[in-house]
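Re: the 105-residue chain
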Amino acid sequence: MGDGRGLTPDAVAALLGDGPHREVADVLRARLRMVPEGARALAAAEASPGDMRARALLTASVAQLLESDPAFAQYLATAGLGRPLAERARQAQGSDTPGAAAPTP
């Protein structure tokens, strides 16, 4: 998943507030709004996050964006969405060192 194109589910979750990647979501939101289809899909999914059709359209728009712009997909992969879950957990606990133990209270 180093190229970022497999990040569509995490990207959609970030856009709809289901994830911790607010800054990445803001950049992705701006990119989607640059094309009419992306803007419509984003608006519909944000208006009704539980609407599975709206979410599916947003997922398709995000996937199309990431497939059409490998450089942007790579950016997303290096901007938080592409980090392995264990690394994200360490960072959330205040440690970026792989293998470092979590701080004890």
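DSSP finds six helices and no strands in the chain.
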